[in-house]
Amino acid sequence: MRRLAHMAKLDGKVAVVTGASKGIGAAIAKALAKDGATVVVNYASSKAGADAVVDAITAADGKAVAVQGDVSKAAQAQGLIAAAVQQFGRLDVLVNNSGVYEFAALEAVTEEHYRRHFDVNVLGVLLTTQAAAQHLGEGGSIINISSVVTDIHPATSAVYTGTKGALNAITGVLANELAPRKIRVNAVSPGFVVTEGTHTAGIAGSEMEAGFVAQTPLGRAGQPDDVAGIVAFLASDDARWVTGETINASGGVR
């Protein structure tokens, strides 16, 4: 009975989480499912990763499906949302988590580097939200995953930090634009989080990670679950009076 009571927070809701095959996105998908949501686990290329997330959710008596789609392409972003609505009949929560990051010094910035980041991190959010907004109703919640880089401005991150600054501004604009329809729009800004991505980039376990931890008042690196719980709160009716906010999930880094 306690498990059923816990799941009720998002019971009956359908959520789409973009870029959910690993890392923070995977943790968010699992957290939303644990709270009762039916979750569409989006992935761009890692079908195996997305399938593993779905398997973990269903093994815990949750409901999830994996749907491929590159959010930076309008037709695929629309197809992702259409698949969710066709399969489950509704849409209540959109988590815009898809993102790419690669730091580059000013002299190394190229048109391709710029476009890759802005196409996924900014245009992708706009395209997916545009498609989702047609189906979200009163009580709908959109959560954008930003980054604490917009506060700390790390060197060699001009393009990546630029995308997240744009995302924060878009969050505020869409909160105002969608408020008359009682749809909430918020952002969560993680600090350094240990994920497959930070391992692949060679950051996890490195001197760079040690530097991040040294700057973190709570004294450790973040874990995906540290972010997922905040997203689950924003997705729920517990956050019904919260919109247009950017919440730092950074262990106190600012």
List keywords for this structure.
254 residues, alpha/beta, Rossmann fold, 47% helix, NAD(P)-bd_dom_sf, SDR_fam, oxidoreductase
Topology:
Layout: H1 2-7, E1 14-17, H2 23-34, E2 38-43, H3 47-59, E3 63-68, H4 74-88, E4 93-96, H5 111-133, E5 141-145, H6 149-152, H7 158-178, E6 184-190, H8 196-200, H9 207-214, H10 224-235, E7 246-249
Parallel strand pairs: 1-2, 1-4, 2-3, 4-5, 5-6, 6-7
Helix pairs in contact: 2-3, 2-10, 4-5, 5-7
Give your account of this protein's structure.
Belongs to the short-chain dehydrogenases/reductases (SDR) family. GO terms for molecular function: 3-oxoacyl-[acyl-carrier-protein] reductase (NADPH) activity. Keywords: Oxidoreductase. This protein is α/β, with parallel strands linked by helices and 254 residues long. The protein has one domain: 3-Layer(aba) Sandwich (Rossmann fold), CATH 3.40.50. The protein is 47% helix and 14% strand. It is built from ten helices and seven strands. The chain has helices at 2-7, 23-34, 47-59, 74-88, 111-133, 149-152, 158-178, 196-200, 207-214, 224-235; strands at 14-17, 38-43, 63-68, 93-96, 141-145, 184-190, 246-249. Helix 5 runs parallel beside helix 7 (158-178). It is globular, with a radius of gyration of 17 Å.
